Amino acid sequence: MNKLLKKMMVALLSLGLAQAVWADNMPNFQKTLQAAEQGNAQAQLDLGVMYYKGEGVRQDYAQAVQWFRKAAEQGVAEAQHNLGVAYDQGLGSRQDDAQAVQWYRKAAEQGHADDQFNLGLMYGQGRGVRQDYTQAVQWYRRAAEQGDAKAQVNLGTMYAKGQGVRQDYTQAVQWYRRAAEQGDAQAQSNLGWMYLNGQGVRQDVAQAVQWYRRAAEQGDAQAQSNLGWMYLNGQGVRQDVAQAAQWFRKAAEQGVANAQNNLGVAYYKGHGVRQDLALAQEWFGKACDNGYQDGCDNYRRLKLGY
Predict the structure, then answer these.
(1) Which pLDDT belongs to residue 305?
(2) Which of 150, 170, 152 is nearest to 160 (CA)?
């Protein structure tokens, strides 16, 4: 049976490089260097970005880190963020979670939403700090209240799981909805799950389909798998095995094990696709390789001819 359980936690740090908005053309390297050497913090940030991206100068992460540090020590939040990213990724410096947390915290305390999110994630994962879900919730909330969709998703998940806060599905739905309405695919998929199971909202399979579809059309693999399951079973939508197979294929090609197994079943039975036992065995094998037990069982049965 297809497992509809959804991984609800965004697992990526916000690692985009912060920089100044340049009005016209890229700043002249020599002029920027001169201003940076004279202690101009904005020029130091700009120079770090130029070295980091290789714009106007040969790319040099170590030089980028040097200039980010100078600006960061003058209190520039964007430079503090960039320095945290450098330590987090080990670019231009030795990878160091504790240093990443230190610089993320400085920017977060200045109201930098990306780093409030990053700090929440570091506390949630116990990277560079002792794991502390309560602290994670606090930092996610600060970013979420600024409209950060990633933080809204993770705050919703903390409420759904009761991590660092009393479990509250209604609050989870509220935060998922805020992110979903910003177009966040993870939130849309999670909101679909909540409607499907009646958690924090009245159960509504048609709404579940709607949110799964919005996420699936953005390429969210688990939502594609779940939407396929809805079509296969006629939940919230007219049953359509061909549509089910199409969505299972999209998810299967992204490596979702239960979708790989379900696509194998479709080929085995000729549901929505032309029957093809060789392709059925291929997809069962991929599901098995991904640790999906039903895929392993189906692969063995097909290989043995029953």
Answers:
(1) 80
(2) 170
